[in-house]
Specification:
By secondary structure, this protein is mainly α. It has twelve helices and no strands. It has a domain of 77 residues. 75% of the residues lie in helices and 0% in strands.
Length: 245
């Protein structure tokens, strides 16, 4: 019995070593591949990502290869091949791969322009707080593309995208502006000028000139008290979602 127990421990020890080596290989090669990509050595990055993908070490590699084909980096640009890699990554539950596959369908890029498929994959990524997926799915709900038109759902998704994304660089800035526009449209069921002023203020803080122009127009419609309320809401939003002194 003691010998059997020792053999089990030995086997577990080997398994632990294998797992450590496996994880170490993933982290190391991903790091090196990312560095190669940043340095413009796309062929070297592709070689490492292919190794990781071929041996099933990480599904992220499949998404990265898809992006190389999408942008023609180190390979001939091939949107259909990019879609195939994104589909592989999505089948293996890579969040970024699911998002990119949804966008291929959304834009008809290397795949049929199929809004229902786009909404399906973007919805999967949005559930896990992928800001880009939330942003584009919000617009689909706003205009009824592949999903029933539902402006309140669109607003909720866009608000989450702003909170989850790098709001200064990617989706948030346009999200602030779009939320402001939606809330100023009298034909939209969501019509709240104070809330619109808040979102436009947040966009203006980041230098959005269109939002600034729209804000100037709204000045004529809101009282001084309403503008102050909008400013308080904007500050409160920043304090809740972003570090503000």
């Amino acid at each position: 019995m003691k010998k059997i127990f020792l053999r089990i421990l030995a086997a577990l020890g080997v398994l632990a070593v294998v797992m450590v080596v496996w994880i170490g290989t993933e982290v190391t090669l991903l790091t090196f591949a990312d560095e190669d990509h940043e340095n413009g050595d796309y062929a070297a990055a592709l070689e490492k990502w292919r190794f990781l993908a071929d041996y099933g070490i990480t599904d992220q590699a499949e998404t990265e290869i898809g992006k190389l084909y999408l942008h023609g980096q180190g390979v001939d640009q091939d949107e259909e091949e990019a879609t195939r890699w994104f589909a592989r990554a999505a089948d293996n539950y890579d969040l970024e791969g699911i998002y990119y596959l949804g966008m291929q369908y959304n834009l008809g890029r290397g795949a049929p322009n199929d809004y229902e498929q786009a909404a399906h994959y973007l919805g999967l990524a949005a559930e896990y707080d992928h800001a880009g997926a939330q942003y584009f799915l919000a617009n689909m709900y706003m205009y009824g593309q592949g999903v029933p038109e539902d402006k309140r759902e669109g607003e909720a998704l866009l608000t989450r995208a702003v909170a989850n994304g790098d709001y200064m660089i990617r989706y948030g800035l346009r999200g602030f502006y779009l939320l402001g526009l939606w809330k100023t449209d009298p034909e939209v069921e969501i019509h709240d000028l104070v809330e619109a002023y808040k979102w436009l203020l947040l966009a203006v803080v980041d230098g959005d000139q269109e939002a600034d122009d729209r804000l100037t127009e709204l000045d004529e419609w809101l009282t001084e008290e309403e503008r102050a309320e909008a400013n308080d809401r904007a500050v409160a939003w920043l304090r809740e979602h972003i570090e503000v002194d």
